[in-house]
Amino acid sequence: MTKNVLIIGAGPAGLTAAFELLERNSDFHPIVLEATDRIGGISCTINHNGNRIDIGGHRFFSKSDTVMDWWAARMPLQGAPAKDDKILGKTKPWAKDGPDPEKSDRMMLIRERISRIYYLRKFFDYPISMKPQTVLNLGLWRTFVAGLGYMKAQAIKRPEEKTLEDFMINRFGVPLYRMFFEDYTEKVWGAHPSKISADWGAQRIKGLSLSKAVLAALAKLLPGKKPQDLRQKSTETSLIEQFFYPKFGPGHLWECVADDVRAKGGEILMQHKVVKVHVENDRVVAVTTECNGEQRRIDCDVCISTMPIKDLIESMDAPEVPADVKRVAEGLPYRDFMTVGVLVNKMAIKNETNIPTLGNIVPDTWIYIQERDVRLCRLQIFNNWSPYMLRDPENTVWIGLEYMCAEGDALWNQSDEDFCKFAVHELASIGVIDEAEVIDTCRFKIQKAYPAYFGTYAEFDTVRNWLDKLGNLYCVGRNGQHRYNNQDHSMLTAMEAVSCITGTGGSRQALWLVNSEGEYHETKKSA
Which residues contact 322 (CB under 8 A, 6 or more apart)? Predict the structure, then answer.
């Protein structure tokens, strides 16, 4: 008999699980329950007046062959661009042996990663590297102090890395930490790095150091440098130079996957918020959803959850949820996210690099805003992610501004109109745009976008161990595991869960180990 598998959430993890269940075993019928009207979770792409905006940028790269091949199978990869090709215009940005982006919608572009830090109204490499331009931008005295601090940190390391502050100082030294990490981290997370677990650094920048960043910068200057292998397995994640990117944004890939799931017989129920998870005899037997004010109970044989752990525990309709489990789950922190789209005729900052771009705008995909006088954390320039994100990429620049906040705080509660004015003013105040050049704006909010590593996070195993006792419940994805994973890690957790469910390998322990040790974890069955 066909078994119902309820999958909570239509983000990368949920949709990967649904697709893999249908690919591997016809005995399972996946039903995806999505609370919003958007496909892709925080990897969604929204169309605003013909211009597409991402909820945070998403580079498509992985050290997992399984994930890389999975993406390529869903969307064909364009041919690598020639050196003298422009991003758009008369010279086409694809090789003769690759599909033509003008004629194919379902395809991946190959992009060059260019991200910089904006600090002191100047550009610095990201990650920071001590090369001549850095010295000029910082000045001799700041550079001397930073270098001295770095050497001291390498000679006398903090013995225990309990906090993110410890983690960063050990790798960069106190002065560079103060300049480039301390304030920015607090702006992003709403907590000082001394209050955040070192686990965040171990997951996000575990192999990064100043020496590696400098060596990577020097390697680019060597004659006869070979093109970077697109799989980039030996490259530290923060130093990745090339990545894939769907022509119409990451959300388009997941919209295509959702179409494939439906075509294979799976169901995707939009605007179905899970309000109850019913548990009997240590198994999830059903969930209750709410859609347009009406509730519906759906029975299941298996449940895969990508919903925030805090919400999952709160929704549990179980004989008894231990008090400690409730307490820890309630104390798990999150950062909420807002993005503001700003369409301008042109930017005020000039392209002073030797990288050609359409309209000669700066070539960055991301710019990290280190300036202390604004709340803005980071901005994206969508022209450089994909010109097909814009209705008129030759005459306009489409910028995404990223703000981290807490649901219900002063920023969150501002009206869209007022907040857009605030964001535009901030962008103009640091010299990125001229307010007179603004054509259009929009704002979008995302709740619980980023699981955070403070509060009761240190006791998370209390919740995990109890959830693991529910024999047919599998927690996957970023929020499903309360881990700041990348998109590929979320997909790998889903694949691991499907292996467990279909009896093709996998284990609950391996499910929680994705991106927790060494290189990107990949199970034997999925390798």
Answer: 466
Provide CB contacts within 8 A for 281, sequence distance 6+.
Answer: none
108 in any annotated domain: no
Residue-wise pLDDT for 176-192, tens only, equals: 999 988 999 999 999 99
Q: Which of 75-89, 128-142, 162-176, 383-397 has the lowest mean pLDDT?
A: 75-89
Are 372 and 444 in a shared domain? yes
- Spatial distance between the Cα atoms of 197 and 309, rounded to a whole number of angstroms: 18
Last residue of a domain, one of 451, 478, 494: 451
Omega cis (within 30) before 127? yes
Q: Which of 107-116, 147-156, 204-213, 446-455 has the weakest average pLDDT?
A: 204-213
Inter-axis angle of helices 323-330 and 460-467, nearest 10: 120
Which CATH number covers residue 468? 3.50.50.60
Q: How confident is the model at residue 204 (pLDDT cuts 50, 70, 90)?
A: low
Residue 394, number of CB atoms within 10 A of its CB:
11
- Asked, for residue 99, whether it belongs to a domain, the answer is no
Across 58-85, b (16+ Cβ under 10 Å) vs e yields bbbbbbbebbbebbeebbebbeebeeee
CA distance 92 to 415: 42
How many other C-beta atoms can be found within 10 angstroms of the C-beta atom of residue 90? 5
Residue 423 pLDDT > 60: yes
- Domain match, 294 and 355 both: no
Strands (E), 74-154: 108-112, 115-119, 122-125
Domain that holds residue 341: 334-451
> With the C-alpha atoms ordered 325, 326, 328, 329, is the resulting torsion angle positive or negative?
positive
Cβ-Cβ contacts under 8 Å for 100 (sequence gap 6 or more):
92, 94
Task: Examine the domain organization and report whether 469 and 327 are in the same domain.
Answer: yes
Same domain, 342 and 417: yes
Task: Kindly state whether residues 326 and 462 are assigned to the same domain.
Answer: yes
Structure tokens at 120: 């002191």
Domain CATH number, residue 190: 1.10.3110
Give per-residue pLDDT as tens, 497-521: 999 999 988 788 889 998 775 443 3
pTM for the full model?
0.86
Q: What are phi and psi of 68, to 5 degrees?
A: -60, -45
136: pLDDT strictly greater than 50: yes
3-state helix, strand, coil in the chain (%, to 5): 35, 25, 40
Query: Rounded to 5 degrees, what are φ and ψ at 122?
Result: -135, 165
Residue 100 tokens, joined = 């033509």
CA distance 512 to 465: 11
Element housing 383 (H / E): helix 382-385
Tokens of 193: 């790095």
The values of phi and psi at residue 34, to 5°, are -115, 125
CA distance 307 to 286: 15
Separation between Cα atoms, residue 7 and residue 266, nearest integer Å: 11
Residue with structure tokens 């013995």? 159
